[in-house]
Amino acid sequence: MAYPFTLPELPYADDALEPAIDRQTMVIHRTKHHQAYVTNLNKALESQPELQALSIDDLCARINSLPDAVKTVVRNNGGGHWNHSAFWTMLAPSASKSAPSTNLGAAINADLGGMDEMKKAFAAAAAGRFGSGWAWLIVKSDGRLAITSTPNQDNPLMVGVADATGTPILGLDVWEHAYYLHYQNRRPDYVTGFWSVVNWDEVSRRYAQAHG
Length: 212
Ligand code: MN3
Prior knowledge:
Number of domains: 2
Bound molecules: manganese (III) ion
Distance between the termini: 22 Å
Oligomer: single chain
CATH architecture of the largest domain: 3-Layer(bab) Sandwich
Mean pLDDT: 96
Strand content: 5-15%
Helix content: 40-55%
Order of helices and strands: HHHHHEEEHHH
Shape: globular
Structural class: mainly alpha
Radius of gyration: 17 Å
Low-confidence stretches: none
Number of helices: 8
CATH superfamily of the largest domain: Iron/manganese superoxide dismutase, C-terminal domain
Strand order of the largest sheet: 2-1-3
């Protein structure tokens, strides 16, 4: 996946995550907000042929070495494209009843004190992120799991920009555009609803890929 970047289709229907995430929020979020990140990223790279071959992962990981002319716009819009593309796949209808793999479950126990403690720490990261940003479950370079959060559209692939570095395996968008139509100011209720639509099969796949 490299330039020109395109808006991915959802792997489920627009209303498939209801009641946790409503159809109207999903439609506006993907076709307006995510589309704007894709459009602005492509526009920024028009004049940067040497960057056009890079994957979106590489653009995020190399954010600090990008030319000053495009660094900020790629950080905001490339981050936005990576984050949202991942987010859609990390969700699934609650009826799918997925569960963490044996390996991921063991790592959550060993590194984060178990599933309940992990959810508590993740919810605290989501609630504590002032303004707009993301909460993350990541695999650090030493292979251990950690919970973190980032402002705006930063993500943990961005060395020295995000407040922790690693490979995100689960993320939650806590921008108001992600929940305000349905939850208004009740971000903690949105986080609670989120757990019912986490795609643990995908999170487990990302864990296996990141952990080796
Ligand atoms: Mn968003």
